[in-house]
Specification:
By secondary structure, the chain is an alpha/beta fold. Helix content is about 50%, strand content about 10%. The protein contains 15 helices and seven strands. It has helices spanning about 1-5, 15-25, 35-50, 80-90, 95-105, 160-180, 195-205, 210-215, 220-240, 245-255, 255-270, 280-290, 310-320, 335-350, 355-360; strands at about 60-65, 105-115, 125, 140, 185-190, 275, 300. Helix 2 packs across helix 3 and helix 6 (about 160-180) packs across helix 11 (about 255-270). The N and C termini lie far apart (about 55 Å). About 55% of the residues are buried. Bound molecules: nicotinate mononucleotide and 5,6-dimethylbenzimidazole. Keywords: Cobalamin biosynthesis, Glycosyltransferase, Transferase. It is an enzyme of class 2 (transferase). This is Nicotinate-nucleotide--dimethylbenzimidazole phosphoribosyltransferase.
């Protein structure tokens, strides 16, 4: 499934992009006046293979949740149980992501891809694979590959088979959401400790030093921060992951939610549906997706610039400019949801704005 998904990813359609550029030149606005929205809409035309591209509706957020063996190294002050507890909160509609999803009209799908502690939810709330109500959310998909990763400072976080299973879970979730009609996918994540593997992935794929890409996550103190940098460096020294082998990198220093997000991104790119990236966990997964298939970057839209320094290093490596920069560092998909109206606006212009000719407005 991974290989066929990667093989289906191709370049942007140049003639659709030329048509979008030409249309922009005829719309009733000074050329270039919509700034970053113009190249974004051109790229979405190239992704769709036509101009105008479809409006990115309906929107679907997929929140992948997992736990981390490296939690044992004291890289975060939060207990691991918070991952499972927040799943309960997502399903009850009480998290920030739910508030923003209601505002944006987006569905919420929560995927347990590797939570370590028992979920505080009724198993009857668990949707079966292939559920046709994928866009009705919030719903839970049970797809636990293993109860958290292993401690990457001691051994590889995952076997290659486990990493593949998580990637393929992400591929399957994207397929389900797109088959149910989603016009854009938004990345979400939940996992206490997951900014540590995100930093390790970013260092591995970009070659930037761990001290430059490791951040304070949920807000760790100076002592924990120093330990976190040492932990990331120790894991990279131990495994020396090869950035040309993305499955190997994900297995050595990744997380189950990072791997699943890489799969979601690859699957969206293969189906030529845009994927709106959230914060540092999403962009670390995007680096893995780009290592599997460089053309996958064509489907990625960077929703926001996370406060985590690794996010900026990853976005630079991907050549993506974030749409908004508000100092957010929550995850869950919250930054992507806030950016969604910008993406919709960029496309709506190509559908609805009059041309100089049709509106009888004089050109310069
Ligand atoms: O999205 C981000 O950029 C982001 C930045 C900092 C923290 N987070 C969230 O906080 C959790 C991980 O933080 P930590 O300090 O436990 O590694 C995890 O649930 C993430 O979704 C997310
Ligand atoms: C409360 C809480 C909510 C979160 N949402 C995403 N990561 C989180 C981490 C914590 C600790």
């Amino acid at each position: 499934m991974l290989e066929s998904t990667v093989a289906a990813i191709g370049p942007l359609d140049e003639s659709a992009m030329a048509a979008a550029r030409e249309l922009h030149g005829r719309l009733t606005k000074p050329a270039g006046s919509l700034g970053a929205l113009e190249p974004l809409s051109v790229r979405l035309a190239g992704l769709a293979g036509g101009c105008p591209p479809p409006l990115p509706e309906p929107a679907a957020v997929a929140i992948f949740a997992g736990d981390h063996g490296v939690h044992a190294q004291g890289v975060t002050p939060w207990p691991q149980e918070v991952t499972a507890q927040m799943i309960g909160n997502f399903l009850a509609g009480g998290a920030v992501v739910n508030a923003f999803a209601r505002q944006a009209g987006a569905s919420v799908t929560v995927v347990d891809v590797g939570v370590a502690t028992p979920l505080p939810v009724d198993p009857a709330a668990t949707a079966a694979a292939g559920d046709t109500t994928a866009l009705a959310g919030p719903r839970l998909v049970a797809a636990n590959v293993r109860p958290g990763t292993r401690d990457m400072t001691v051994t590889a976080a995952l076997t290659r088979d486990e990493a593949r299973a998580a990637v393929e879970t992400g591929i399957r979730i994207a397929q389900e959401l797109i088959d149910a009609g989603a016009g854009i996918l938004l990345t979400g994540d939940m996992g206490i400790g997951n900014t540590t593997p995100a930093a390790a992935l970013i260092a591995a794929f970009t070659g930037v030093d761990p001290a430059q890409v490791t951040g304070r996550g949920t807000g760790v103190n100076d002592e924990t921060y120093r330990r976190k940098v040492d932990v990331v460096r120790a894991a990279l020294d131990r495994h020396a992951p090869d950035p040309a082998d993305p499955l190997g990198v994900l297995a050595a220093v990744g997380g189950l939610e990072h791997a699943a997000l890489a799969g979601l991104i690859l699957s969206a790119a293969a189906r030529r549906v845009p994927v709106l990236l959230d914060g540092v966990i999403a962009v670390s997964a995007a680096l893995a997706a780009a290592a599997f298939a460089p053309d996958a970057v064509g489907a990625m839209v960077a929703g926001h610039r996370s406060a985590e320094p690794g996010a900026t290093a990853a976005l630079r490596h991907l050549g993506l400019d974030p749409l908004i920069d508000l100092g957010l560092r929550l995850g869950e998909g919250t930054g992507a949801l806030l950016a969604l109206p910008v993406v919709t606006g960029a496309v709506r212009v190509l559908h609805e704005v009059a041309t100089f000719d049709s509106a009888g407005v004089a050109e310069k």
